[in-house]
Write a structure and sequence with these properties.
Blueprint lengths: L2 E8 L9 E7 L4 E5 L6 H9 L6 E6 L2 E2 L3 H6 E4 L11 H11 L4 H14 L15 H14 L4 E5 L7 H14 L4 E5 L3 H4 L5 E6 L2 E7 H5 L11 H13 L7
Parallel strand pairs: 3-8, 3-9, 6-7, 7-8
Antiparallel strand pairs: 1-2, 1-4, 4-5, 9-10
Helix pairs in contact: 3-4, 3-5, 4-5
This protein binds adenosine-5'-triphosphate (ATP).
Keywords: ATP-binding, Nucleotide-binding, Transport
GO molecular function: ATP binding
Protein name: ATP-binding cassette domain-containing protein
Length: 250
């Protein structure tokens, strides 16, 4: 049992073609990286999976729970692309508040927030107001929010954007530590950096999956003469160039 989208159709505005049409996807174990050009539908897919928005048609379930149910929301954590700071809340208060929204009792949420912040190396900023944090620090607060309530599925929308190289390392270590027990679906534009660390790679193009499978299979798309260290980028380009079939159903 896992995250499963079955025949989902979703878009923005009835007059515009849907972003995802009759879209089905089953998330494998471990860490899956979601790649695709701007506008491909990555955030839309993550929002449906997070139950932030409901599909016009189709079903979304996780471990048999229906998206929209309280149990589903408690099992799933979503980190959006833009994390909005709250000037009245410190990092600890922010993380505890999200834990409470996810169904933790206030005391547990408050007591566990520092551990979640420690895991993203942000203990020193626990008492800093969130509007005073840098963009990268705020994203780490977002990751701490995802960790605090013990979610079984993490949906991360470009989590490493704005992080410095060391923080990316820390972040990847956290994911590696989590993935034996937690499934992760993470969008990124950072192909070279992350594809090699992922268990699986899914590539979206124009609302369609043009590749999904183990990272090794993804990297096998790179031409043999790809420069060392550029295999992921070359594989991604090769897949997209092979996937540029016009959409006939729009
Ligand atoms: N709130 C919205 N209202 C109208 N259109 C939207 C909205 N959100 C997304 N779209 C449109 O839906 C399509 C898919 O967007 P989405 O954000 O899912 O793509 P993405 O792959 O995450 O892109 P990016 O890499 O730029 O974040 C785009 O054409 C986008 O303009």
């Amino acid at each position: 049992m896992t995250l499963e989208l079955v025949s989902c159709t979703h878009g923005y505005g009835r007059r515009r073609p849907p972003v995802l049409k009759d879209f089905s996807y089953r998330l494998p174990d471990g860490l899956t990286v979601l790649l695709g050009p701007n506008g491909a539908g990555k955030s839309t897919l993550l929002k449906l999976a997070a139950s932030v928005t409901r599909p016009r048609r189709g079903t979304v379930t996780f471990d048999g729970l229906d998206a929209g149910s309280t149990q589903y929301r408690q099992a799933v954590a979503w980190m959006p692309q833009n994390i909005i700071p709250m000037r009245s809340l410190t990092a600890r208060e922010y993380v505890a508040y999200v834990g409470w929204l996810k169904g933790m009792n206030r005391r547990d949420a408050w007591e566990q927030a520092p551990q979640a912040l420690a895991r993203v190396e942000l203990s020193s900023q626990a008492d800093t107001k969130t509007n005073r944090l840098s963009g990268g620090q705020l994203r780490r607060v977002g990751v701490a929010c995802a960790l605090v309530h013990g979610a079984r599925l993490l949906l991360l929308d470009e989590p490493t954007a704005g992080m410095d190289p060391r923080q990316r390392r820390v972040f990847r270590d956290i994911l590696t530590e989590l993935t034996p027990t937690v499934r992760v679906l993470m969008s990124t534009h950072d192909v070279a950096d992350l594809a090699e660390e992922a268990d699986q790679v899914t590539v979206l193009y124009d609302g369609r999956i043009v590749h999904t499978g183990e990272t090794r299979a993804f990297l096998a798309h790179a031409p043999r003469d790809a420069a060392p260290g550029r295999a992921a980028e070359a594989a991604y380009t090769a897949i997209l160039e092979g996937g540029l079939v016009p959409r006939l159903d729009g």
